[in-house]
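User: Can you help me understand a structure? I only have the sequence.
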Amino acid sequence: MKPFKKSGGDHRRNPAEHRAPSRPGGDPSLLWLYGRHAVAAALVNPGRRIKRGYATKNAADWLREIGIAPEKLAIFEDARPDAIDRLLQPGAVHQGIAIEAHDLERARLKEVCDPEGGRRPVVVLDQITDPQNIGAIFRTAAAFGARAAIVQERRTPPLSGALAKAAAGAVETVPCVKAVNISRALEALKDLGYYCAGLASEGGQPITLLPKDRPIAIVLGAEGAGIRQLVGQTCDGLFKIPIDASMESLNVSNAAAVSLYEATRGEIS
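Assistant: Let's start by predicting it. Here is the structure, written out as tokens:
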């Protein structure tokens, strides 16, 4: 038995070749996820509801090889790569697999950021809008055991598409809090006992001086602009990553990796 559905007749002509993705005005909770690791992580996430999926034979075989349950594989229809191309935005690198799924349930700050039982960090993204950078930060956050990521609701792109692919499955495991106001979110973190450390290219203390006796919230700003003035003033302290004078700054996702490493040094083995 095939691990995915076939459309019948000539396998080269599939419903996936004729269906279009959800458009504005449709169900706003539906989005597209593509790429092997992003899709595999969604399939094993009990909180992710999936409407439909399309996969090439090679991609479906890979899902079976990594142990995806047969009932999950049954949602997929056999599709050629060019058919999947037409379902997604131009240039999407889908690796032969895509699913249309409902957005994850909204995470609440006080629930997912409760530091009881450990000092796992939180990352706060202040007006970072680039999907690749956000996805890379989610991946780094998962690697260093971050409790959650807090983003600005109106400025952050959906956690789907290229962002989810760059995250390599981390959007399924790192809760995302969508805050209306970042400064207020920092105040809420302080009330929970977090030390809010803003990352600044100039004027801050070395990142090695992050306190080790409290959970840390790493606050990152957009490349170039950095964190906004009010957000910086709300932080408990500003920190910098010392780098060679020949380079002005680090990519924000690389800065997140260095900061999270320092915040968790000695905690992860």
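Now, to help you interpret it: The chain has ten helices and eleven strands. The longest strand covers residues 50-55. Let me know which part you'd like to focus on.
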